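Below: protein 1.
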Amino acid sequence: MQVNLERIKADILELSQIGRNPDDHGIYRMAFTDADIEGKRWLIDRIEAAGLPTSIDGAANISATLAGKTDLPRVLVGSHIDTVPCAGALDGTLGVVAGLECLRCLKESGVQPDRTIELIAFSDEEGRFGGMFGSQSVCGQINPEMIATMTDMNGVPLQDEMTRHGYDPVAALDAARDPEALHCYIEMHIEQGPVLDRLHKSVGVVDQITGLFTWSVRLKGEANHAGTTPMDMRHDAFMGLADFAHEVPRILEENGSDRSRATIGKAQILPGATNTVPGLVEFALDVRDTSMDVLEELADAFRKALSAIARRRSLMFEFEQKSLISPVECGVPIVQTIQQQTEKLQLEYEIMPSGAAHDAQIMGRMIPVGMIFVPSKSGQSHSPAEWTAWQDIEAGANVLLHSLTALSNKTAEIVRQEF
């Protein structure tokens, strides 16, 4: 069996027009906006056109099923179709479109798997409301307080947006699944990084999904006149940040691994006047690794470095942990299955981690998961420049098709970890 690339192309290009801004060419299909709801309706129409049963749960996750011969635990495949602002056409969308194509191929070929295969398009993977609402709901990680208090960056409540579109927010609590009824979850995604593109390999077989923590850090000094305050008498908060930025590579080298990443992606210097010594700096620190032990060691090292810099520069230092997501190991049998199917298709592949968070990371806390990557041109993502060559999309989708076929076999055994 082979996927129908022309059908995949048509679906990707058609969906990319929903929420498209003609001025910057970006896609604005953020969760529970009008464009997102239009995208959900489009997906339901495509599922129904394929002759597959469709359903939508309380978290507005959309599903399609290909019934199996038995009532064995089912295989899930999916991703999301919501986007960040000014997005490209593939992030999340590719996994949903490719998953739908796999179900269509199996149905058209007259193949009835032993296990039911369910495509699921999760709501709000991009975290408009602070989390991965759809997959968290499926995993039973949502509670009434969260539903009542989740807002976006503009203060718009999740429950208001859901109600506006005819959804009952509290029904998200009913979206939780019984893990015993689920065999595994597999997700195809663009890499969103440069590794596969630089290696000229069509497929990435993900073995681990990175964990991360983010801090909001404040270094408080003393604002003063830029002309009259001697250099040795300053309490310059920005110089503290500069010192810390230079420490980041050393800390990663000494305390991290080859899969460690640390980023200062946002900083504010106050009072922000040309002729004033900065009295306050606020910045964000994003740290990632595939090992929780390494993350904890890095957190300790970054905290000590900031404390030492604050003492040396006569500054006050404080931080708040804004998020903490644990790393997830992909299921070894799933990784092996994807690897075997890639080799059977004679495709070049790379065993690699995922440096970005995905719905698979949430699902991986409940059931075994696996991921298939395809290259991102120049490593670009979350922008209109995001793209993957059609032949690589075809290759990844065929790996997904054959991996689903293997994993849905009643003899496919996956040893469950304690979750």
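Below: protein 2.
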Amino acid sequence: MSFGDKRTLKVAVLGCGAVGSQVVRLLSEQHDDLAARVGAPVELVGVAVRRLDAARDVDVPDGLLTTDAHGLVARDDVDLVVEVIGGIEPARSLILSALDNGASVVTANKALLAEDGPTLFEAAAKAERDLYYEAAVAGAIPILRPLRESLAGDRVTRVLGIVNGTTNFILDKMDTSGAGFSEALEEAQELGYAEADPTADVEGFDAAAKAAILASLAFHSRVTAADVYREGISEVTAADVASARDMGSVVKLLAICELRPGPDGQEQVAARVHPAMIPRSHPLASVREAYNAVFVESEAAGQLMFYGPGAGGAPTASAVLGDLVTVARNRLAETRGAGESAYADRAVLPMGETRTRYHVAIDVDDRAGVLAAVANAFADHDVSIQTVRQEGRGADAQLVVVSHAAPDAALSATVDQLRSMDIVREVTSVMRVEGGEE
């Protein structure tokens, strides 16, 4: 295939782990197809790694491996840099150096984008280069580009998603097998879905970073991981999952980003990550095992759902290569894609002012007046009760209450009051409820 006078575009890859090795493999195996799609040859000229002798899933061509990442991104012949090492540093310094030296950048670094995205976007704008990051959220699922481009003419009002495969696998196993959290986590680790230290996943840090990126794109405002309210799934019990099943619901760790009216009437961004019960009729309820899905609501398009493998070397590399093709085309055309869109500059609504619904299970004394006392506790905080049912008798008596939507601070205060009441032996479960009738 002849490309006339089209020059070869040179690519440097930072990192050769699970994702980086698959990027290197695809660049080699799909060399001719990529050249045809881009409109010019694409040549891998270097792969930066920490150790030259480390075991790898792919054979890197001789002479391409280097431990000098800073030297690689500073080369004046590198057109595109792919960053898949993760973390904050040295990734931030390397990306800034690449942009400063005239390279466009494709990254999968959700943690860095959620912590310091504006610095990167400003550097890309100053250098007049692209910064693309589809692989940072939900692996192979195309969700960021639809938010940034396909829905650019629409008004997105809500993004609701399962964006962490590890936690979804654990909760799915708890639902289908009746296993407890520890047992399901152990299985996830044995199968390679969970790290030896699963904290980033099970405590919601990974999902919170992704929620910040989604909210920033959807609502044209700067949202960081620190702005996202976060709860993990380590406190979810088999009893919680069973109670959800009795309600015709399932427990999922959800990233929820939405526009809500603030105290002054102006729209604000509410961004949160926490486990929640959702009806089994909801599209997200059917997302099984380690899969991800993102549900988008907008004024004109209505409801859209994006589903697929949310992690893994090859799926994530697919998203990286998609960005690489776009960025390479832009380099040939001497143009650049859309940069950061933060014109709306909306404030972030505190979690306490965000309207949510609670499912509360309460061990109570089985005697007259208990139900009225519990109802009064909800009324004291102006929280309306949607449903209430009693399970068991005597020492086993339990009330299960589902509220209507109310400010989260009011619901939390209600639970604190319930815990202080003489008739309440224990508040055994508190979980938010999403979907269904409010």
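DSSP finds 14 helices and 17 strands in the chain.
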